[in-house]
Amino acid sequence: MTIEVTAKKVDDAINQGLAQLGVTLDRVTVEVVEQGGLFRKAKVRLTLDVEEKTDDAKKTAKAETEQKPDKPAKSDKSDRAEKPEKAEKPDGAAKQKSDAPAKQSAKAPAQKPDGVKPAGKKQAVKPAAERATDAQEKPVSKPRALRDEDKAAAAKALEFVKGIVVKMGFDDATVEVGDNPEKINITAPQGDDSLIIGRHGETLSALAYLAETGARAEKCHINVTVDCNGYRDRRAASLTAMARRRADECATKRRRIKLEPMERADRRTIHNALTDDDRITTASEGKEPHRYIVIYPKNNRD
After folding, report:
1. C-alpha angle with apex 44: 16 to 38, nearest 5 degrees?
2. Alpha-carbon gap, residue 292 to 302, rounded angstroms
3. How confident is the model at residue 137 (pLDDT cuts 50, 70, 90)?
4. Do the bridges between strand 225-228 and strand 183-187 make them parallel or antiparallel, or are there none, so unpaired?
5. pTM, 2 dp
6. Which of 264, 265, 259, 271 is nearest to 288 (CA)?
């Protein structure tokens, strides 16, 4: 099922389309038809992924119904073949005993290949689960070594974020860093964290961008990441699950999958999640702030 929605902004059109379909964002494919402008509205096209699964289910159901009428025909033939055997009473019970093992031996080899083939088909789905467990068991990467100038810039970035959080009115929030001086963690009470995080982490990304801009003005290169109450980990887990589903769809259907526009940190998460998948490749396309990721089948990028 595909619908087209128009609104003032792209995000508003996507939210309206999701409300009409009654599904979440990871169940649809979003295509931006028009970005919108001063005198025109934005237009997006949402395609529901469930339709393809229901079509496959209908095809399998039809195949099963077409196979069912064949069974009674076989039983009729077997009944007709068994009637002459019952009429041959003078031959004795010896013939019936000799015929029984012959029938069992004829049926036995026919059942073995039927039990082996479905097992081979089910095993083809296991590599995706194995890749998911392997990704979870990977060790956490250590923070990179910083120069003294970069460490001083990271300390200034921390003080900058502290000042901004206080000016925003969140006096109860705690701003600190852990083992990685480039990652700033904000601990805020419940109710305040949603205002600090923003929609899809937009406020956190803005704080990180301003902190990096101040460091680069002093000719220092640091990658600042701002997190609040573990939001980045939750967001990365949901993006990783969505990316693996899209990768399976791309490898199965052998066609490119275009994801929705997202910020740099989210794009980096998806690239890292699909790095070990030998079936597909990923690439970022478009221009900011509408830059998006496209998943291509391996050896079929055209």
Report:
1. 95
2. 18
3. very low
4. parallel
5. 0.48
6. 264
**Pairwise CA distance, residues 289 & 18, whole Å:** 22
Task: Please report how many Cα atoms fall inside a 13 Å half-sphere around the Cα of residue 44, on the Cβ side.
Answer: 22
Provide, for the chain, the percentages of residues in helix, strand and coil under a 3-state DSSP scheme, each rounded to the nearest 5: 55, 15, 25
DSSP string computed for 195-206: HHH-GGGHHHHH
Query: Within the chain, what is the greatest distance between any pair of CA atoms?
Result: 109
Q: Which of 72-76, 191-195, 222-226, 235-239 has the highest mean pLDDT?
A: 235-239
Write down the number of H helices and E strands in the chain.
Answer: 10, 9
Give the residue among 147, 152, 218, 222 at the shortest CA–CA distance from 182: 222
Query: Facing residues of 48 across strands?
Result: 28
The CA distance from 241 to 227, in Å, is 20
Peptide bond just before 289 cis, omega within 30 deg: yes
